[in-house]
Write a structure and sequence with these properties.
Largest sheet of chain A: 7 strands, mixed
Radius of gyration of chain A: 19 Å
Low-confidence stretches of chain A: none
Oligomer: homodimer
Order of helices and strands of chain A: HEEEHEHEEEHHHEHEHHEHEEE
Number of strands of chain A: 13
Structural class of chain A: alpha+beta
Shape of chain A: globular
Largest interface: A-B, 79 and 79 residues
Strand content of chain A: 15-25%
């Protein structure tokens, strides 16, 4: 599988299941799957894996934060469809050597994320396992359309992102350095360990029909932008100068010998929303951000040619933005 | 966790999530969770784990059979609620060293089970992992009640089981012996590697309101009977003589130094249905079995006292039936 790579594996899976029943409003390839009941509101379904040694290490991630994150990353997939999460299933494989305290703390964090986001755990499975394996499935109400997919971006649309992509990657770098500087680093670390899914933003973008395509920023801005571009058959021109950073971010990144822009473009695990929106709606997008007190930046434009994503750097140079970021099996 | 045990872990999880929204028709503690959309048919949701070295070994399980089984065990959970499976999500963690052929065969088996049972894969997740790690979530239509739970057995009800519990355990024993005897052993091995979920039976029992409680036999007859008894607050008296075996089963079990009755009571992974039914409906249960060409045996009676499950052996002796079977973390 190392020769195949994750994208090819997903493509492999997609090709193995070609038919799509009319009741499946969103199937393989979006952040969550939407199904229409015989009548009534469509339900969104999604599942995500968190595996020890792959997605997290127990020496940098506490059990409680892990519980929070296990649910939050799934809620983010529902948010990226413009839906409202409602139900969760938790499948948990745990080494028998772990303590009861670990389980308790994990469930406390999971439960806290569930309460915060009005989501109810309604089932699951447990098993012994050689390392900690977590699979969470979430069901939620979809917008009437079935949700905002990745394939709707149109030339001329603006490319928007919420929050500050890169904060989670800086938090991880700080944790790995083994020398966090107390309060000053707490913001980056929190962003990495207990990400906040942008559920209200996603839902409002769907309700007001402001976004033509949307994805959550889980594998790095560059890779997730490339996914929208590929699914929509368009290109994108990103303006590096519009990718901004919170106070103290750039200095801290450099102190760890990391390039701030690289952290933003390739870091991943931010669980912010990336979306495209036609120019006549930009004013409304801005007002929505203010009302939700959520930072929303326009960082580029959708272009006609399907030549992928380019980035314009400070000196007016344009280069291809390679879709780097986290890819499994490589 | 080895001190806690699986049942306590599930109880722990249940207690961490005490509230139940009125729309949750079946939550933690049944084979699948049922939720009512704002209007329309309730949807069943379930998730199950299959972990290499815990649930299967790659030297006794081929990739294609594994793919079939990964979906089948989840479909069985839907069957045990009396529901109709419709959608599946597949979360797959795989060692990077596996071949593409493994993936292809796995997906072929999964896809075959999906087609056979009218279930559509609508999403999922993939990741690298230290061992093969599979989590499948399935959604399905529930009966109007939300499904047949474990808690409805009443004193005087008959205890029924479909098929021949123990065949899967005999199949595993044959595989582990390393000396399968061709055609003669094929039936037991098939039962272990590619179990057939009893979807039509479960659905008909629900539609005709023939069952008061139901569970699928995944962890052994004794343990799964104890689960119905505990959830219903009743006892059960099982008649050992009514637990019957197919031709050749007993001789083959003994050739491997295994007790046939122990295989049936503690083997697990049969994915047959265990259910209770009031005496006025036994005739209809029998007719249903004939119509579906599915063997259904009455093996005991629900009793008033909540003293667990007892078994009456050949010589008229009655002993407690310890809820042995597969329990994780022990």
């Amino acid at each position: 599988l190392s020769e195949l790579g994750e994208l090819a594996i997903v493509e492999h899976i997609r090709k193995s299941f070609p038919t799509s029943h009319p009741s499946v409003l969103r199937g393989i390839g979006d952040d969550a799957a939407a199904v229409r009941g015989r009548t009534g509101t469509p339900l969104l379904l999604t599942v995500d894996l968190l595996i020890e040694g792959v997605h997290f290490d127990l020496d940098t991630t506490g059990a409680r934060d892990l519980g929070w994150k296990a649910l939050a990353v799934n809620l983010s997939d529902i948010a990226a469809m413009g839906g409202t999460p409602r139900y969760a299933l938790l499948a948990l494989g745990l080494p028998a050597s772990l303590t009861e305290g670990f389980l308790r703390d994990f469930l406390r964090g999971f439960s806290q994320a569930a309460r915060t986001h009005d989501t109810e755990l309604i089932g699951g499975d447990t098993s012994s396992a050689p390392v900690v394996f977590i699979a969470v499935a979430v069901g939620g109400d979809a917008p009437p359309s079935g949700g905002i997919g990745r394939g709707g971006a149109r030339p001329g649309d603006g490319v928007f992102v919420s929050g500050y992509p890169g904060m989670s990657a800086l938090g991880l770098a700080v944790l790995k350095s083994g020398r966090p500087r107390g309060k000053a680093d707490a913001r980056w670390i929190r962003s990495h360990l207990t990400p906040r899914p942008q559920i209200a933003l996603g839902r409002q973008l769907a309700r007001k029909k402001l976004a033509t395509a949307m994805i959550d920023c889980s594998d790095g801005l560059a890779l997730d932008l490339a996914r929208i571009a590929a699914a929509s058959g368009v290109g994108m021109e990103i303006d590096a100068a519009s990718v901004s950073f919170p106070r103290g971010f750039e200095a801290r990144a450099r102190s760890l010998k990391r390039d701030p822009l690289d952290l933003a473009l390739g870091g991943g695990e931010d669980y912010e929303l990336i979306f495209t929106s036609p120019s006549r709606k930009w004013g409304e997008v801005e007002r929505l951000g203010r009302r939700l007190r959520t930072r929303i930046r326009r960082i580029g434009t959708v272009t006609r040619k399907s030549a992928g994503v380019t980035i314009r750097t400070g000196k007016g140079r344009v280069r291809n933005l390679a879709p780097f970021g986290y890819e499994h099996f490589r």
